[in-house]
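INTERNAL AUDIT FORM
Audit reference: QA-55
Scope: verify that the stored structure record matches its stored sequence.
Auditor: D.O.
Record contents follow.
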Amino acid sequence: MRFNVATYAFRRLGTLSVLDEHERTMAFAELALGQIRSLRQTAVPRNYEIWYVYATGYNSPLNKIINETLARNGKLTEADLEQIYETYLSHIKTTDRIDRVGARVIGEIDDVMRLLADALTMSTSYDVNLVGASERLATAENGDQVKAIVESLLHATRQMRNTNKALEERLMLSKTEISSLQQSLEAIRAESLTDPLTGLGNRKYFDRSIEIAVQNAIASGEPLSLLMFDIDHFKSFNDSYGHLTGDQVLRLVGISLKQSIKGQDITARYGGEEFAVVLPNTALRQALTVADHIRRAVMSKELKKKSTGEMLGRVTISVGVSMLKPGDDTDSLIERADACLYAAKRAGRNRVVCEADPEYRAETSTQVA
């Protein structure tokens, strides 16, 4: 297999310690691009980064999962590459950015603490001056001595005022800077929970949100429903028209979801071409209405290839719907919705199936058998 040759070449790089940094990094870059070329992947920054990191060998879990996937399937799909990036690289970037912001916050605090220390020293010195001036005034014998004492106090007061003014200005700057850094942290946090392609929540966001939603529903006794759906024949879009068109399909579904879902409802890209919607305070019948509304919204949009203007037809989705039951946990809720989704696909796609439908019962009886 091709990947064995590449893997051998990557390992050989470990012996090239005599190369300077420029030659080393260029060698990594050439191997990364060579792997993209040999596997006929798109040369987008994400894929380049995956293979560059693979070439360095510094991220052994990433190398391990790539080798295992290639050994099993002989290729890496776009979904595989996306999952690898999200699992083994994106969180490292987020951590690095958080660390940088944290370092800036610590730097701001250190600067303010030094300024406060200077102000405290000045305040102590001013107190000493006041005490000394008071003692000298008590023993002053003429006007000249009193004048000298007053001038000394005025000089010390001006210094104290200047120090306080500098401290006040620095504190205002720090307040602004720390507020900006706080916004940066919020942006990083939001970005870490957002799927960059569709703008919906990502899998991490979904996992966190559904746990909270299920706990709240159990505590309040209110209904909660879950929609799981994926895009029909998505692989054929990628194979026939390329990954850029596949990305366009995913964005189209993301737009339809944003337009259809409001308020407290939770939307996320579950993975690959599969999406999820959590509907708090929503019973099964209402959830079916929402699911069919989304299905119709997606189907109403006709797909056009951007590069050529060619009309590619309409996109459809299959949807599985489950509702939280007594004794349920998050996993069982997801499993039933997923089983309903597969039942919808088996029944012909472009439809909504819930756990009360005969298609779902047929699906579960087939699994048991």
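Auditor finding: record pair retrieved intact. The chain is about 70% helix and 10% strand.
Action required: none
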